[in-house]
User: Which sequence fits this backbone?
């Protein structure tokens, strides 16, 4: 059995925003304690720190929740992801597989007229999707 794990990239922009908000908020809190500023400024600093921590938590948890796992073996495939239902199928039910021009989506055309779509989460690397497509093509070629 071969497993392909597709993960979105690390959200660098969100991590930068979280760091800036947390540092600025902490700086405002410290300055409020050192200088005779009103309590409203302290509250703004605390809200900035809280915002930074919330964004940090989301930035760390979101990529793991958008992970997609494609498992293939000689009999068929299984697609698992937190954001979608699990899909299973047999290679004998697949007519053909195609990959989009951008490489971000693989479509399995089934005998019953339905299609299974494998979409890269976020902006996953094309090389990973190319490996998945090559594995699927090899499985379909073995079937023939």
Assistant:
């Amino acid at each position: 059995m071969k497993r392909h794990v597709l993960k979105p990239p690390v959200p660098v922009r969100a991590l930068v925003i979280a760091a800036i908000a947390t540092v600025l908020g902490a700086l405002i809190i410290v300055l409020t304690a050192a200088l005779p500023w009103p309590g409203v400024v302290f509250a703004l600093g605390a809200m900035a720190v809280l915002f930074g921590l919330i964004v940090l938590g989301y930035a760390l948890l979101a990529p793991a929740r958008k992970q997609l796992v494609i498992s293939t073996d000689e009999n068929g495939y299984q697609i698992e992801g937190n954001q979608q239902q699990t899909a299973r199928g047999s290679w004998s039910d697949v007519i053909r597989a195609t990959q989009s021009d951008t490489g971000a989506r693989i479509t399995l055309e089934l005998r019953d007229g339905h299609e299974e779509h494998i979409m890269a989460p976020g902006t996953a690397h094309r090389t990973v999707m190319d490996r998945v497509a090559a594995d699927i093509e090899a499985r379909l070629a073995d079937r023939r």
